Amino acid sequence: VLVTTWLNQKHLGKLQDTTITSYENKLTNQHYVYELTRLFSLKRLSLGVDGQLSDTDLANERIEELITLHGESKLMLGEQLYLNKLIQDYSKLLKLEKSYFNGDAFIMEDGYDQMGAILDQIMLNMDAWENTLVMNGSRFFETSEKSIYLNKLLLNMEITFLIVLGIILQIIFFYPKKVA
Question: What is the pTM of this model?
Fold first, then answer.
């Protein structure tokens, strides 16, 4: 039983380490999403009110880097769907931007509104993604916390049981009842 207790304690340590690592991964993913949201907000602002689009190459490089980093991390199914939607919308936006900067006449007339609509859609997608991350993160943390608490409780109960059993055995062996 003592060996089992020791193994349970060792397992509990691994569980805590895994939980902390997973939680840090969630925080990193959440940071990527917030950073992407900030960059897309800046892109939306760069459309301006005068109908001129400022050059956003630096933002595009950072967005592509964050999308790549985020794609390489461990994502849940819902998060992967949001990432795929973001990649699709961002590809459309890049095509429109490229045409805009190349001076395509059709894009100059209608593309500005299309870019605004795509950026609005991306921002809605990012908001939904952020909400999903917050909900998943809090649910994950609560579940992990309950599991750790339960393991500690069971471990303490097992130790208490062993101590009581040891005391009872000592009483039985060292103070046997005398048979008359």
Answer: 0.68
Is the CB of residue 112 less than 8 Å from the CB of residue 53? Answer: yes
Amino acid at 111: G
* Tens digit of each residue's pLDDT (9 = 90 or more) over 5-30: 676 677 677 777 777 777 777 788 88
Q: CA-CA distances (angstroms) from residue 170 to 14, 24, 126, 176?
A: 35, 48, 65, 10
Q: What is the pLDDT of residues 55-75, one digit of tens each?
A: 666 788 889 999 998 888 777
Q: Which residues contact 111 (CB under 8 A, 6 or more apart)?
A: 96, 99, 100, 104
Give residue 125's pLDDT.
92
Q: How far is CA 143 from CA 10, 25, 135, 136, 155, in A?
A: 20, 16, 12, 10, 18
In order, the DSSP letters of 5-21 are HHHHHHHHHHHHHHHHH
Question: CB within 8 A of 3, min separation 6: which ones?
Answer: none
